Amino acid sequence: MFDDIDPRSTIPLYDQIAGRIRLAVAAGEIGAGEALPSVRGLASRLRVNPATVVQAYRSLETEGFVEMRQGSGTYVRGVTAERRQQEQEEQGRRLARELLAEAARLGVPGELVSRALQRELGGGGRTGRVTPSASGRRSRTGGGGSVACRTSTATTDPAGNGTRPVTI
Length: 168
Prior knowledge:
Blueprint: H1 13-26, H2 39-46, H3 50-63, E1 66-69, E2 73-76, H4 81-106, H5 110-120, E3 130-132, E4 138-140, E5 152-156, E6 163-167
Antiparallel strand pairs: 1-2, 3-4, 5-6
Helix pairs in contact: 1-3, 1-4, 2-3
C-alpha cells in the first residue's frame, strides 16, 4: 500500500501516507474496524520519523476515516458509500493533475493525453474500470469509470540521456 511514498516529492510525507490510506479505504482494501499498522512499525517500514505517521493518522482521524484509541492503535471507521465515491473522485483528479503536469514537462499537449486516455479506456466516451493484467498491460473491466492502476513505462529523456521510468 505504501510503495509509492516519495520522500523527494513536494507533497509532505504525512499527506502521502494519509492519501494512500484514504485511497485504500475508499477502494475497500481496508475495511471498517481493521487496525492500521502501529505508528512505530509504519515509521520503521517507511524510514520516516514516527511523528510523521502520527500526523498522518491525526489528519485521517479529523477527516473521519480512522479512530485513534489510546494504547490500542488506530482503526478504520465505517465510511459511507458516498464518502468512498468522493475520495475516489478526488484521487482520480489528483492522478489526472499529476499526469498532466508530467505531460507538460515532457512537452506533450493535454489533447494528446486526453485522446490516449480515451483509447486506453476503450474509446467512444465509454467509461470503465482499468486494472493491471499479469502482463503489465491494462484491461477494461467495465463499471464505475475510475482508473484503478498505476502504470510504469519508460520514456526518452528530453536531453537525450537514455530512458527513465514514468508513472501514470
